[in-house]
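subagent[fold] <- orchestrator: predict structure for attached chain, return tokens only, no commentary.
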Amino acid sequence: MSSLEPSLLPTGNLLLPVLPLRDLCLFPEASLALNVLRPGSLKALEVASRTGSRMLALAQKDPSVEGGAMHDVGTLADLTENEVQDDGTRRVELDGHRRARVVALMGSDTLVAEVEFLDEGDPGDEWGPAVEALARYMHAHADLRAFLDKRRRSKEPMGWINLACQHLPITGSARQKLLDSDAASRCLKISRGLDALLRKEQGA
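subagent[fold] -> orchestrator:
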């Protein structure tokens, strides 16, 4: 789903404007649409628009605290839509590419981060059980499956898993732990966690 060929993705450390997320994470090979209103975030969008339309989507540790501490791991994203709405907010859409760890975070209102990129690694044999667990969960949640089918842009198994991680009904902290993990660990956590979540929902 990436608009960039793998050979064109950045490899060294990079300075990126930060889009803080509340109770959300953006995963590689997934997309995220949201409305932006906070002044600092609007300025970050302006910086991104002038400097290649790339941002770091980074979750806040406490979404209830304005300008609070941020997590260390986020996702390099392309800003693919940036439209002004009638109420002054901006509707944006981000396409996620690769995970990145914050080396240094600068600013107070509008944030800029120096980031180093993280390897996803090979999911190995772990992706199979994760896809199977996801299929079982989707079978019990037809509405969520329909939503994810519309959002899906990658036919690769990890793209499907990443998109599900982004939209599953779990806490923000649990979602961040999935983003912190490499591909193999993420698949393992999904394969174990989804079946446990399904049993809990079904009262088993």
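orchestrator: received. Logging for downstream: The radius of gyration is 17 Å. The mean pLDDT is 88.
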